[in-house]
Amino acid sequence: MTTTAPTSCLGRAPREGARLRLFCFHHAGGGASFFSSWPGRLPFDVDVLPVQLPGREARYREPRFQDAGEVVEALGRELAPRLDEGPWAAYGHSMGAMVAFALTAARLRAGGRPPEALFLGAYAAPYVSPSLPPPDRYDDHELARLLVDFGGLSPRFLGRDDWLRVLLPILRDDLRVCATHHRAGLPDPDDERARLPLHVEAFAGVDDPLVTPGAVRAWGRYVNSFRMTTVPGGHFFPRQAPDPFFDRLSPSLARLLAGLGGPPSAPG
């Protein structure tokens, strides 16, 4: 049994014996529960570790971030021991893609252990037009309707001001994080010498009303190795069309495991 205690941004300690840790970063307004079904969808030797930002779900009472630089600094400090322990990869969805990438870039600058690969979904490269709306452009009802339209909120929330008073402040603060991406220490996409020695696989939903495949493909200007995949579904394709998405993500993770060598772990 492992004796290491979980950090506050992880709901549990990493699973002992897993050969690859997959740290997962959630979308704006979301939380770690977005990834609750993932362990059953991915190879057993991949330990799915959702990262929970403060101010939501189990960390609801903690103050939220509003600045991308502060997010990256705090996560880098908190996750560094876990990221240095063994092979890891990361998946970031929407806002989480920017957070995962910026965290990885910061670790590389500091000489930390790099990931085996980085997986990014449903977010435009930051130098392209913003993926998400500015935090204060819409009033609460307009923002709630926008969320419903692109699949980020159930229609049953409309008209429930008590629910929206809880949800929308979280979303607005996350949108402020997205709007301050320039403070997160991202490399210059126009400088080929600044490209990171990383392999990135990016995913775009073919029916995503917020982010075009071309905007997602633009992540390739940040790294030395890049692959782009379009999948059925909209902005939240891991939930809207999970089978095609996991049919592409699982083999990529299996290839990483094969590259690590060693025998597979036995479930149970």
From TrEMBL:
Annotated TM spans: none
Domain Thioesterase: 21-248
Any one Gene Ontology BP term: lipid biosynthetic process
SUPFAM superfamilies attached to this UniProt entry: alpha/beta-Hydrolases (SSF53474)
Gene3D superfamilies the UniProt entry points to: alpha/beta hydrolase (3.40.50.1820)
Family: Belongs to the thioesterase family.
Protein's recorded name: Thioesterase
